[in-house]
Fold this sequence. Notes:
Layout: H1 4-13, H2 20-27, H3 33-42, H4 51-64, H5 69-78, H6 87-102, H7 105-114, H8 124-127, H9 129-137, H10 142-151, H11 160-172, H12 180-190, H13 194-204, H14 210-217
Amino acid sequence: MRKKGAKEIQICDKIPIPSEEQDQNNRNHGFTETQISLLIRKYPRVLLFDPESNLFPKIEFFHSKGFSTQDIAKLLSTTPEVLRRSLENKIIPSYNFLTELLKSQEKTNAAIKHLARILLYDDLQISVAPNIEALREIGVPKSNIVTFFTSRPQAFTPNADRFKEIVEEVKKMGFNPTKVMFGVAIHALRAMTKSTWEKKVEVYKSGVCLRIRFWWLLGSNHGL
């Protein structure tokens, strides 16, 4: 009669145990337990992915572009949907589009850190390029567009029609397209509902101190 203990040992022998080198490699990807838990909770399908063909190539790509281990861990744990995007067909073309626009790897990385979800858009040539062109057409300097996009990429994500409406509203308020504050106003209006914006415009016109009116209109007390 075979001993039960011998059978258990045979079964356990078939379970692959990571080598010390593999275990260290996994830990070096920089994910904390909290980040792993967040990633799985937000995107359970990640458990079905093959790390060798999905996770690791994306990590290596971001590393090659200058993202730190901590940056990558934060990006993928807060926006895990990036893992379902094709590296070759989606992530790399999006990254190249941003680099061509911003003319700098550092600025491209900064924009992605501000809005990792920009990597989830199917085609930035369709969703973002028209909004950039709309600013160029009214005389917004290229340097201002780069600065604006680097720090507030989410302002460029409305559909083209809505973005043009926002630009027109900002122009009606008297903001100069050649000044940096034109972009700040676009960002503020994009984040508000139309009714909220209209209420703020009424207060703006009411005769309160100009400086207070301006910063209140933009939803900020930064300038006070």
